[in-house]
C-alpha cells in the first residue's frame, strides 16, 4: 500500500544491520527504471528516440530548462532522494568512473527501458534493465578501485536499490500490434517470461552486492491518457489494469521467494496501485482538477510526448498528468509525500541526521 515504500526506505536506512562504511555517512541510493525515473541518461545516447531534452520538459525544474526528465519538473525519485536528505543521484551516462559522485548514488534509468531486452526496440537506443545492471557492475568495479573491495561490498550491501520497471513491457511491447511478443505469447506466457527475466536480473543484482531492494510496482496504466485515448468512451482500459494487477501479484511472490533463498536479501514490493488510482479517480481530494487528460496538449497518434509546439494548460498544478504517459511534478510530489507521511507509517523522520529535504522548485 501507500505506506509501504516509506516504511521500507526508513527501516532499511536506519536498520542496525546496515554495515558502517568509512567516510560514507549519508544514504546511498541507486535508481533503476524507465522514463518515470530517467534523469537524463538518454540524452547521452545519440540515436535514442526516447528523449525529453526539449521544451516544455523541465519548465518547472530548478533552472526551468530540460534535463532529460520526462515531466515538467521532478521525478518521484528526485523527491524521495530529497526526503532522505541527499542530492538526486546523477545519470550514470553523465559520470566518469573516476568521479567521487559514484560513492553517493547513481541513476541508471532510461526512457523506453523494460525488463525484456526487446522492449522499446523502436526507440533505437535505450538502456534495458540488463544494460542498467551491467552499468552498475562497472560502477562497483570503479568504487572498489577507489575504496577497496571490502568497503565497496559494504557500500553495496548498505545501499538502497530503487527499481521501477515493467510498464514499457506492456505499453511498448505486448500491447503493440506491430511487435512480435503480443502475437507469439499468450498473456500467461508473457507474464512467465517477464517474471523469469526479473528473477535472473534481481538475482544478478544480489550477487553484485544489492541487499536492500525496493521494487516499485506498476500503477493503473489503463487510466493514463495514452490508454484512455484507445477507449471508445475515453474511460480507463480495465483489461490493462487487470494486466497490472496480475503482474504486481507475480512480482510480490517473486520477491518473497528471492528473500527466502538469498541470504540477507531484503527485497520489498512498494505497491502504489491503490494510491495512484485514487489520485486519478478523486483528483480534487489531492488539490487537482483534471486527471483524465494531460496538461500538455499531446498528439497520442505520434507518441504522446509534449512537443515544443504543444499548448500547455494554464495551471500545471491542477493536472495529474503532464503528457500522455507521465505525471506532473505536482502529482509526483503528492505521491512521494504520501509515501512518507501516511499515518500507518508511524514516526518517520524526513531525512537522516535531521537534514531537511530540499525545497520544491515550484
Automatic annotation (TrEMBL):
Gene Ontology cellular component list: extracellular region
Protein name per its UniProtKB record: GDSL esterase/lipase
Record carries keyword Electron transport: no
Gene3D superfamilies reported for this sequence: SGNH hydrolase
GO MF term set: hydrolase activity, acting on ester bonds
SUPFAM superfamilies assigned to the protein according to its UniProt record, in alphabetical order: SGNH hydrolase (SSF52266)
Span of the signal peptide: 1-23
Keyword field contains Lipid metabolism: yes
